[in-house]
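Input chain follows. Return structure tokens only.
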Amino acid sequence: QSYDLYYFGLIAYELITNTEVFTDVNIENKIYPDLTVIRNDWIQTFLRNCLSDDAFSKPKFDDIYQDLLMNRMKYQGIFGDINEEEVNGYINVLNEYFISFSNNVQKQAKEGNIDSTLLYGYMLFQGCGIDKDKKESALLFKKAADYGKTTAMHNYGYMLQNGYGVPKDEKEAV
């Protein structure tokens, strides 16, 4: 979902600004469009969060959908009419995909794949296609961190610092 939101942010930027950002974009290269050309502060912040490499600051698609529906009038001038049926269809397809994807990632994590362990931990933390389970998420981040995954170290430290799924321990978090 992190990569999906990155590319979603790029597509939204292109639609809003009517410009083509890049033809060969790669999240690993940290290539981002110039958000200062967008005058709306909310949209700048929203796109900055979508494009962020901090997984915890990214919005979730369900949250984006709910915000668009709840604030339809606010966004109508920016995005035009929002077709609820079309959006619901898209959300259903995404949900089916996430369920299938999460089952596959969970299987690979149980088989010992450390990248899948890290990803499944993130999915459990955010509730991506599965129910949130911060306790299990913390265990998986710890396991991946013990194998040297720096992202897992950061995520586990974040959970320790804030007491998400584990007792709060700021000393251990550092």
